[in-house]
């Protein structure tokens, strides 16, 4: 399946990634992306930047090397109550918010606890997507979370890094099962390279193959075209981004 938007990318500001925003934009163009989201880790992740980093993203141009840039964050799910570690002042400055489990922040619990955390995160209204849910360390009720995500218009991410096996080993079968459940309930899918080095940005060979395998409808893949992604942001109640009108 065609993918033109990468919604999960990191710069060296995350503390364990190795490229600049400009380098990411260069590779996004080379890899055929029309748009990407820059989503460095928020404060609870070791090595992450101060919240001023996110509040000041207004200085980032809307286009770099002809590729549209959305200002975002990968925030951490902190507890079963669905609280995340993004500073309250940061929300108004960001276009896109992913929430994820990370071992350094959220200790493994049981399936029920993980499910409660994900559902409460969705219901908080503070996040646009859930990141790399294939991680076998965080088992959860796929159907319950997919149904809740559909109800609240929160996208479920398919993460190319997880599918390559380089991180979150054991995610491959779970990602396929999650994708099939999301398809069955009629939810939205987003796609992220989770690039921690610029060469990986916009590379979706694994995700694209999985979407084809499960015959995911393209109108449910919000990264299929820039317009679909912007329409999803509008569905989420976000204000139009003037510079992107007509994309």
TrEMBL record:
Name of the protein described by the UniProt record: Phosphatase
Entry keyword Secreted: no
Listed NCBIfam families: PRK09248.1
Source species, domain of life: Bacteria
Native source organism of the sequence: Vibrio casei
Signal peptide location: none
Cofactor requirement: Zn(2+)
BP terms from Gene Ontology: bacterial-type flagellum-dependent swarming motility
């Amino acid at each position: 399946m065609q993918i033109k938007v990468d919604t999960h990318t990191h710069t060296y500001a995350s503390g364990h990634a190795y490229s600049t925003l400009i380098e990411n934009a260069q590779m996004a163009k080379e890899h055929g992306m029309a748009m990407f989201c820059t989503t460095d880790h928020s404060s609870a992740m070791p090595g992450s930047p101060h919240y001023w980093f996110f509040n000041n993203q207004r200085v980032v141009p809307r286009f770099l090397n002809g590729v549209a840039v959305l200002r975002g964050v990968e925030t951490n799910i902190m507890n079963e109550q669905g609280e995340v570690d993004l500073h309250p002042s940061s929300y108004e400055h960001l276009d896109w918010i992913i929430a994820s489990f990370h071992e350094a922040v959220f200790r493994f619990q049981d399936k029920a606890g993980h499910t409660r955390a994900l559902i409460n995160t969705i219901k908080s209204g503070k996040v646009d997507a859930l990141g790399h849910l294939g991680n076998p360390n965080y088992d959860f009720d796929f159907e319950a979370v997919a149904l809740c995500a559909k109800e609240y218009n929160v996208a479920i991410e398919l993460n190319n890094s997880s599918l390559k096996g380089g991180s979150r080993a054991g995610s491959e079968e779970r990602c396929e099962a999650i994708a099939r459940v999301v398809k069955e309930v009629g939810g939205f899918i987003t796609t992220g390279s989770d690039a921690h080095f610029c060469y990986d940005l916009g590379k979706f060979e694994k995700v694209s193959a999985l979407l084809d395998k499960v015959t995911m409808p393209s109108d449910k893949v919000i990264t299929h075209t820039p317009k679909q992604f912007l329409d999803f942001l509008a569905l989420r109640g976000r204000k139009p981004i003037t510079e992107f009108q007509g994309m």
